Amino acid sequence: MSQQTRLSSAVVLVKKSCRGRLVRVVSLVGILLCYAISALAQNALDIDVSGYELSLGVDCIRNSEPAKCGVTFGGWTGGDGAVAGGWTKFPGTRQGFWKATIDRQGTAAFGSTVTILSGTVKLALRKDKSFLLLSGSVTGGTVQWPSQGGTLGCGTNVALVLVAVDLLIPELGNAPATFDGCLHDLPAGTVIPPTIWGTFTMIP
Hints:
Layout: H1 3-43, E1 46-55, E2 58-62, E3 65-77, E4 96-105, E5 113-127, E6 130-144, E7 159-167, E8 176-184, E9 195-202
Antiparallel strand pairs: 1-3, 1-9, 2-3, 3-4, 4-5, 5-6, 6-7, 7-8, 8-9
């Protein structure tokens, strides 16, 4: 066999070997990525958060009825969940940030309930030295205020917030999630800015 032929055969073998290794590496990375996302979800099923109501939204029409669109909340991880006194100040646990924007119908008042029609949620959760970004669509929910001077489990005059979310995580089948929280915004003008706290629960 000539030197040129031997060289060509060696090149072919090297190329095949590299292709084989590349396929194995890509497959391994894919498996590790799916495992990491699944492990994160299982280790972070309950994410306690605190924050503020950042925007009261604007008047709009939804389903041919008056509504408020673009009501915005945001904050950080940390707190004790949907219990009286569960809010914690910034920076909380330093493990992430969140933002939610919703459209709602109804009047914010003692003894009333508003309906959450739709919205979006974004979570940035610390993963080693970077952040894992999750986003989702709000599929519905309610905000219920107690009678003035009363409580629904979140503290005196504090509203109970119940929200359903679909988190856009393809590897987890767009995992459903919920937010059980508390909103302290009444009496109007006495809580500035209004505070919100609670727990995002990812459902595996």
